[in-house]
Design brief:
Layout lengths: L1 H5 L4 E2 L2 E2 H28 L2 H11 L6 E7 L18 H9 L1 E7 L5 H10 L18 E2 L7 H6 L4 E5 L19 E4 L21 H6 L5 E3 L2 E4 L4 H4 L2 H15 L5 E6 L20 H23 L6 E7 L26 H4 E7 L8 E3 L3 E2 L3 H9 L14 H4 L12 E5 L3 E6 L3 E4 L2 E5 L15 E5 L2 E4 L15 H18 L15 E2 L10
Parallel strand pairs: 3-10, 3-11, 4-13, 4-14, 6-7, 6-10
Antiparallel strand pairs: 1-2, 4-12, 5-21, 7-8, 8-9, 11-12, 15-16, 16-17, 17-20, 18-19
Helix pairs in contact: 9-10
């Protein structure tokens, strides 16, 4: 749609787009050829034998870890969770060979907050990250927090992120300063550019476009390698991230690695390569999910090719629910209420599959509550790494992951924060108590088409209790029937307010660590 509306720039700086892409691909291929030559030399001097011993000696103590994190994917957007109109054969196979988690939560239903939580094992509220950071944000993840990459570095893992970062775009916030050896991707959401839907009515060259959002940069390491990402470039993002991921696995097959692939898709604006354009019965959205599924297949294929499947944990999940007012360019939350931007289940419960042949029981399902904040402490237990000295909120979920008989959720309670620090709900394995708050909703109205959203209405909910085991849609308030559950959950909420605060009740928490701020002496990313 974007190309039809605005056309595509012919040049990046002084370089034609076609030449830029050709140079980039040539450089990628050249690096691969040089690495292949280096491997051949290593074999000739006996390096093969050393490599085999090293790989065999770490088979049980240092498993590889791969986290694939999709943007704005709804609960019902992949085959194992009931997707319709397109096929996801690689995720279907991953589920058959692994374990599906049907009650897997994120910390908050928005990009940066959710990403801060998965990487640190903390509620986003604890580490001072809320909302979605933009091109003019001057704060980001603190060096005082330990990321999954830094945790793995304790055991000399190779670490990489290929995809969307969104925890601050200035150098002090970027991945290489937080435990990652390699980074290639966008610094924030792919709609934060001059073609944002808010400016769709303006002329192509309107100055107001860039006052709203500057050109979207593509980053490698700590430097901008493309200062003006185009729609044509966005159509290649899923492919580029996947090529980088496969290459990283190829290069690090003989040592432990942590690979984080936070895809830019299926966040709007949607783009897909020619490989999948027009392939689904669900339009562009279905095409994009099919390409994400292809990416999963490529990554799992690289793991299998090197015989690493019995020593590699792969987790597929998403950052928040679907952006529903985009209609046919958004996913589906299936039976869940609402979507992105709300603390209803449609906003925070994500389609999740975990795969580790020989470790995770194949073809099984877990309906116990677990969360992205549990990944860091679980990985720490798996690789015998030391947890940070400061407080984290995640729990070791190995009993759930490995299908231990009778295993229950490690969480006695789970807190649902949104809107810059509002404690909007608390829940456990069965019950969920909402506190009075406003939320965005379509109220049953028709949603957007062709990539243009419709406005949300503002809904309100009072104190309401839902039995999620019987009513996953949060449609039947049973507070009057179970007053003891209301009072029990209120007590947990008070503990949360003491620790993490609550803007709804104007409480300041004592357990919040501030995010990092940009100072006048810090370097800034310029493009």
């Amino acid at each position: 749609m974007w190309a039809k509306l605005f056309g595509q720039p012919e040049r990046i700086g002084n370089i034609p787009c076609s030449v830029f892409r050709a140079r980039w691909r040539a450089g990628f291929g050249m690096r691969t050829r040089w690495m292949g030559l280096a491997c051949l030399v290593a074999v000739l001097v006996g390096g093969w034998q050393v490599t085999q011993v090293r790989a065999g000696s770490r088979s049980t103590s240092t498993p590889n870890v791969v986290v694939i994190f999709i943007d704005d994917m709804g609960y019902a957007d992949i085959g194992p969770f009931g997707a319709k109109g397109y096929a996801t054969p690689n995720l279907d196979r991953m589920a058959r060979e692994g374990r599906v988690f049907t009650d897997f939560l994120v910390s908050s239903a928005v990009c940066s907050a959710s990403r801060s939580a998965i990487l640190t094992g903390c509620y986003h509220r604890r580490i001072g990250i809320s909302g979605a950071l933009g091109p003019r944000s001057e704060y980001g993840i603190s060096r005082g927090e330990m990321t999954l990459a830094e945790l793995c570095k304790q055991k000399e893992y190779a670490t990489a992120i290929f995809g969307k970062w969104h925890l601050g775009h200035h150098p002090k916030f970027l991945p290489l300063q937080h435990g990652f050896d390699e980074y290639f991707g966008l610094p924030y959401s792919n709609d934060m550019w001059p073609l944002h839907p808010a400016y769709v009515h303006l002329p192509k060259n309107s100055a107001k476009r860039k006052r709203g959002f500057p050109n979207l940069p593509l980053i490698e390491g700590n430097r901008v390698i493309d200062s003006e990402v185009t729609g044509e470039d966005q159509a290649q993002l899923t492919t580029w991230y996947t090529e980088h991921a496969v290459d990283f696995i190829d290069r690090n097959k003989d040592k432990p690695f942590f690979l984080y692939v936070p895809h830019s898709m299926v966040h709007v604006p949607l783009f897909v390569s020619d490989k999948f354009k027009g392939k689904s019965d669900r339009g562009l959205f279905g095409d994009v999910v099919m390409e994400v599924d292809w990416s999963v297949g490529q990554i799992l294929g690289a793991i299998r090719k090197h015989g690493l499947e019995k020593n590699t944990l792969v987790i597929f999940t998403a950052d928040n629910g679907p952006w529903l007012n985009y209609g046919d360019h958004a996913g589906s939350a299936g039976p869940l209420r609402e979507g992105k931007g709300t603390e209803f289940e449609g906003g925070i419960r994500e389609p999740t599959v975990m795969w580790w042949p020989g470790k995770i029981p194949a073809g099984t399902t877990c309906d116990e509550l677990a969360s992205t904040i549990d990944i860091l402490p679980t990985v720490a237990a798996l690789i015998d790494a030391k947890l940070p000295d400061h407080k984290i909120d995640g729990k070791d979920m190995r009993p759930l992951m490995f299908g231990q008989p009778g295993a229950k959720s490690p969480h006695e309670i789970f807190y649902c924060y949104y809107a810059g620090g509002q404690l909007q709900a608390v829940r456990d394995r069965r019950w969920k108590l909402h506190f009075p708050h406003g939320f965005r909703t379509l109220n049953g109205r028709a949603s957007g088409t062709g990539g243009t959203p419709v406005p949300y209405d503002q809904g309100k909910i009072g104190l309401a209790l839902f039995d999620l085991k019987k009513d996953v849609a949060e449609s039947n308030d049973v507070a009057d029937e179970y007053p003891e559950q209301v009072e029990r959950l209120k007590k947990y909420a008070e503990k949360a307010r003491e620790d993490l605060g609550d803007k709804l009740t104007k409480r300041k928490g004592t357990g919040i660590r501030p995010a990092a701020r940009l100072t006048k002496d810090d370097k800034r990313l310029l493009w």
